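Appendix B, example 12.
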Amino acid sequence: MQRAPHHRSRSRRGITVALLAGAMAASLLGGTAATANQAPVSTAKALDLPSPPGGSNVKVLVYYASATEESPVVNAGIEAIEAIGQTSPAGKRFKTEATADGSVFTNANKLGKYNAVVFLTGGGDVLDPDQEAGLESYVEAGGGFLGIHDAANTEPYSDWFTGLIGARPAASAPPAVQRATVEVGDRVHPATKDLPLEWKRSDQWFNWATNPTGSVHTVAKVRESTYKPGTGANGADHPVSWCRDYDGGRSFYTAMGGTADSYSETDFRDHLRGALQWTTRLSRADCKATIDANYTAERVTQPNQPDQQDQIGEPHGMTIMPDGRVIYIGRGGGAANAPVVTDWNDPNVGKGIGQIHIYDPKTKQVTLAGSLTVFGNKGGGDELVKVEEGLLGITLDPNFATNGWVYVYYSPFSEIDRDTQIGQRRVARFTLNPTTDKLDMTSEKVLLQWPAQIHSCCHAGGGMAFDSKGNLYIAVGDNNSSQFSDGYSGNNPEPNYKGVSFADARRTAGNTNNLNGKILRIHPEQDGTYTLPEGNLFTGKETAEGGGKTRGEIYVMGVRNPARISIDKKTDTLYAGWVGPDAGEPSTTWGPAKYDTFSVITHAGNHGWPYCMGNKQPYRDRNLPDPTKPLGWYDCDHLKNESPNNDGLVNIPPAEANNIWYSPQGGAPDYPRNADGVPSYDPTQATYLLPWLKGGGQATMDGPVYRFDPTVKSSVKWPEYWDGKWFVGDFYDATNPRHAVQMDPKNAGEGGLPVSADSLRKIIPVGAGGIRNLMDWKFAPDGSLYVLDYGRGFFNSDKDSALWHITYKGGAPTPAAKDLARKAAQ
């Protein structure tokens, strides 16, 4: 019979804990119990005692009482935990005892002999007030707790137990057993490190009354799109297993284990084994890595002085020195009061100052390292007025510590032709004096320069990165207008200025003989020249098809506006993101809506623009004499560049699939396709393959792949949980991505979708007072993260333009090394 609910007073609990705590801590940690005449032993003092919990005889208590009915999984669960204890590797074994007698929790000397308590309980109120106080005392003294499935329905009137579990099931009918996919995001914790990235299994899947994400450390989620979650579904973020350091002890909860068959699964036993290793103190693990409160976001630059840019220019990119100093650039838009010249008859049209600042975290001071006179200050407004050129990218030579070389990508004002309205994009090298933090502006070595039309805006790119072989990657925008194609494929061949097209990206991104709309790869040489590495998309010698040509610098073609790229320093894999066109919704006539795109790039290729986007979704062709009339759909696997503005090859490489794409309607839209492979583009038929991802106002900002370095002694470095995760974000903070995603290395380079995603929206804060316009983000050598906030205006800097520093303060994994069990029972 179920007992009436008890409402324990805090004063009674305090008395009970005081009586039990001394004996509990002493028993758990091998010390001497406090007597009634002694002050109770505090958790902190107990953890200083020399003997580890359990001594040489590690034990686990399985408690299986139920106030409703005995669960059919109890026997299977006890048998599984016993087998785990007996068959674990030497040094990780333990003994198991099981009971349904709650009096064990009021016997401190007995309870303190267990390293961990497992609740294999049914629902309801299974402990009386003294027994619950005993469990609390046990945890406060450093004990470990593992809750399995229905344990989340236990002690429903206890706020403390709710905190111990982490979340309560939603008030709905008991879930049916369904097969679903579990996303295993934590590749470090012993409970998940050896599980499949995508774990397919059958179980009962609870919905949560309150999602615990951010207050617990989630190690696995269930993917709701793979089963029917029913009433109260949690959505794309649906935790299923998590842990936390709680009230002096350790708590792990898994919602799995709702069927007897679960306990015979090898993978599920491995999951429980790892959870028990941590809760018993047989292993250390980090259960703090995704708890929002363990991160601090601090603005480290001050607002500029009035009418100046002494702290920061119009933020457009950054890089970090080996000693931790941050170099960041301003594109060229001035302070809010700076004059903007848009008249092409004025010799100063578009003239701006691209600034390079250095922030020193040791002194907290900012230094202006140098300035470049750029074409990049025509202001905003119409496509034929505004400009996105300027100082666009920066990176350091791999041997920067010894040679001081800094590479920049910019548009020199001195090279513009006001008559033809053609400018130049340039990659150059400068030398920085590390003592004065000043660039030697006379040291410039121009590696590469090529033309760009500047009659019409937009898409300049800007990302730069080196790989381990010393190859330099440069992300270059397609130099194409956003208008004249209704926001779909930028393929209108008609608009031009003095014979140069500015609305046909087949002239640039889709052209094998043009460096715009590409990611270039070159190898800088000591003398300021460059060579071409093997493995680029072209050799530069292709002359087939009636004199068509190529450029050997091209590694990736078919990108629209790649503002940010990154190289994984462990694998040398290139990661990139680029901004899509402007159509707010798909068109059955012209093709997909605007898709902002992220891609894992493991080989040279064509990523589709302006022919195909996303997972090879084609646009409709158009051409002279009437570009308003649609022609056939592009064949993504057999692409032809038949633009009258093309001076490269006609037959071009096929489009590659991309990993992440999103529109205002959602993440990774997909549609049924006809016999020719053309999607329906009917919004009512859309499937969203990445439901965690939303769009809206969109501008991708590719981020780094984090690599945890155990040799770096740092109190602020992000924990190992994030190792190998790819940071993807958007300039805008509304509903757009700001996530760390887990990719499957087996298919990432072939367009495989992310396995899981962790939101960073509270760690890298959004909203008023936060980082609203994320322009760039990179990890420092000490493992902390720096983020550039563009500010709230456009084409200038304002009071919110800033450099931010995101640090981790959660501390080391638990338990401390000195508190580990020295020897498991054999």
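DSSP finds nine helices and 42 strands in the chain. Residues 1-19, 30-55 have pLDDT under 50 and may be disordered.
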